[in-house]
């Protein structure tokens, strides 16, 4: 039976939709992760085991959670360079916020999350009302927080005693690490806010054209403060998870997550200029970065060479995943 003109007309849009899906950045990033996992499984014994892959995803949960807030900020046209310091504040602060009337430790976790949101809100106020550039504002905040940490913690590590934090870092409900379940919850909430709410639509509009967004009646300043507060919340949440997984917090524990959170967002297809992107791409981006780190670890090289290799691979992946178009 020969194909009719109407059949060809119906199949053409379907073909374009499939081609569009295959060209999307989230799908491309996911395909890169799959290719790296397959290649590493064939060349490295034990890499492809279920336990090892689950461990990689568990490690990626920290990057994925902090990158959720970074995705909000970057889509809105900003950037948050204080997330590493907020993670450290959270990881060091939870053990300090323990009281006899809170044996479960939930009040301490809630308290540090409130502090994290407040730090993010101060960043937003500086950007929105004081007109400080996001890079300068958040970098200054990071420096301020690091100095405060040295004064408070004195450079020594603090061990976690909170049962709630220990549970978050070590429990495996239904065989799945609690950190991964937390990441799933954060991912679902992030995707819903970005793509199914008016607030998410405002972020895309703000990142694409701030002046037009202001003229359309959107409270731009309040939106900016909110988005930085959300970044503070996810960074604080990531700090609690890091503390639970490591068992102790110390000055500098959050530093590695600054570059990786930005790289995960960009790898996933979110424009660093704002106005475009999705958290659906940040998720495989976070997994890709942890996979690269794991592969570099097996290389018998000094810490300096491992850092050079890691930075070079991130730069290469960012170039491969597409250069930022000029607007």
From TrEMBL:
<protein>
    <submittedName>
        <fullName>Ribose transport system permease protein</fullName>
    </submittedName>
</protein>
<keyword id="KW-0472">Membrane</keyword>
<feature type="transmembrane region" description="Helical">
    <location>
        <begin position="201"/>
        <end position="218"/>
    </location>
</feature>
<feature type="transmembrane region" description="Helical">
    <location>
        <begin position="142"/>
        <end position="168"/>
    </location>
</feature>
<feature type="transmembrane region" description="Helical">
    <location>
        <begin position="174"/>
        <end position="194"/>
    </location>
</feature>
<feature type="transmembrane region" description="Helical">
    <location>
        <begin position="26"/>
        <end position="43"/>
    </location>
</feature>
<dbReference type="InterPro" id="IPR001851">
    <property type="entry name" value="ABC_transp_permease"/>
</dbReference>
<keyword id="KW-1133">Transmembrane helix</keyword>
<keyword id="KW-0812">Transmembrane</keyword>
<keyword id="KW-1003">Cell membrane</keyword>
<feature type="transmembrane region" description="Helical">
    <location>
        <begin position="83"/>
        <end position="101"/>
    </location>
</feature>
<feature type="transmembrane region" description="Helical">
    <location>
        <begin position="107"/>
        <end position="130"/>
    </location>
</feature>
<dbReference type="Pfam" id="PF02653">
    <property type="entry name" value="BPD_transp_2"/>
</dbReference>
<feature type="transmembrane region" description="Helical">
    <location>
        <begin position="257"/>
        <end position="281"/>
    </location>
</feature>
<feature type="transmembrane region" description="Helical">
    <location>
        <begin position="287"/>
        <end position="320"/>
    </location>
</feature>
<feature type="transmembrane region" description="Helical">
    <location>
        <begin position="55"/>
        <end position="76"/>
    </location>
</feature>
């Amino acid at each position: 039976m020969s194909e009719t003109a109407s059949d060809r007309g119906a199949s053409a849009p379907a073909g374009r939709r499939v081609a569009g899906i295959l060209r999307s950045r989230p799908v491309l990033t996911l395909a890169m992760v799959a290719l790296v996992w397959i290649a590493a499984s064939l060349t490295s014994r034990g890499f492809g085991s279920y336990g090892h892959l689950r461990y990689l995803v568990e490690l990626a949960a920290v990057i994925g959670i902090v990158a959720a807030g970074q995705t909000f900020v970057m889509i809105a046209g900003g950037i948050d360079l204080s997330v590493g310091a907020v993670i450290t504040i959270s990881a060091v602060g939870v053990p300090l916020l323990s009281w006899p009337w809170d044996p479960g430790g939930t009040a301490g976790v809630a308290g540090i999350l409130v502090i994290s949101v407040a730090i993010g809100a101060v960043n937003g106020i500086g950007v929105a009302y004081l007109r400080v550039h996001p890079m300068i504002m958040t970098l200054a905040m990071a420096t301020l927080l690091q100095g405060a940490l040295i004064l408070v913690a004195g450079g020594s590590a603090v061990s976690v005693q909170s049962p709630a934090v220990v549970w978050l870092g070590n429990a495996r409900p239904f065989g799945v690490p609690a950190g991964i379940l937390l990441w799933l919850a954060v991912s679902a909430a992030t995707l819903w806010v970005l793509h199914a709410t008016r607030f998410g639509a405002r972020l895309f509009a703000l990142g694409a054209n701030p002046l037009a967004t202001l003229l359309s009646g959107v409270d731009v300043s309040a939106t900016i403060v909110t988005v930085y507060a959300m970044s503070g919340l996810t960074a604080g949440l990531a700090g609690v998870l890091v503390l639970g997984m490591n068992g102790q917090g110390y000055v500098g524990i959050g530093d590695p997550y600054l570059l990786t959170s930005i790289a995960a967002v960009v790898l996933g297809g979110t424009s660093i200029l704002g106005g475009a992107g999705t958290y659906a791409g940040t998720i495989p981006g976070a997994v890709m970065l942890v996979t690269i780190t794991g592969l570099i670890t097996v290389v018998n090289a000094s810490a300096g060479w491992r850092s050079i290799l890691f930075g070079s691979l991130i730069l290469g992946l960012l170039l491969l995943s597409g250069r930022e178009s000029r607007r």
